[in-house]
Amino acid sequence: MDTNAKAPVKKMMLILSKATLDNVYACFILANGARMEGIEAEIFFTFFGLEAINQKKLQHLHVATVGNPAMHIPTLVGGLPGMESFATNMMKKEMEKLDIPEVEEFLYILHASGVKLWACKLAMDMFHLSKEDLFEEVDGVLTVGDFYTQAQGEGTHLLFI
Fold it and tell me: Which of 39, 42, 107, 112 could form a disulfide with 34 if both were Cys (CB 3.0 to 4.6 A apart)?
């Protein structure tokens, strides 16, 4: 029997690579849930996931209607003008009914609960962003190597979203 299979989860390292509302909320809810269970949590925002912590973009995230099989609509219909906005507004209304905070408020909640928020150095350079472009509570900008160093330790789990 594998004794590691029963080892407790001590830290969740979440990697967010896309800033569609569904991905962002999945990541944030998992990080928040970890903290509620007493588990450390850190989020590494890379590539388009950076939009979730970009001050100019974080309040304008949307649901992807094209190329998203979970939408259950044909790609042609998903690409029609207004469909993305319609789907985004519907999702936001449903989330509001469940009292799920908007992205910026959720970031403050995560930070206050102890979730570490990291921006990817490579993606920052690629998109010509500086720390000043980011949500004020971002803990720093890390290289991939720095991120792996943060992930060291028994009981750490990495999850790519």
Answer: 39
The pLDDT, as a whole number, for residue 1 is 46
Q: How many beta carbons lie within 10 A of that of residue 29, not counting itself?
A: 12
Please count the structural domains in the chain.
1
Residue among 16, 18, 14 at smallest CA distance from 67: 18
Q: Is the pTM of this model over 0.70?
A: yes
Q: How many CA atoms lie within 13 A of 21 on its CB side?
A: 23
Does 6 fall in a domain?
no
Specify if 130 maps to a domain.
Answer: yes
Q: Which domain holds residue 65?
A: 11-160
Q: Is 133 within a domain?
A: yes
pLDDT digits (tens, 9 = 90+) for 66-111: 666 666 676 655 566 776 776 777 878 888 888 899 999 999 999 9
String of DSSP letters for 28-72: HHHHHHHHHTT-EEEEEE-GGGGGGTBTTTTTS-----SS-GGG-
With beta carbons less than 8 A apart as the criterion, state whether 52 and 19 touch.
yes
List Cα–Cα distances, 5 to 1, 45, 70, 113, 156, in angstroms.
Answer: 8, 28, 32, 28, 13
Contact predicate 33/136, CB 8 Å? no
CATH number at residue 143: 3.40.1260.10
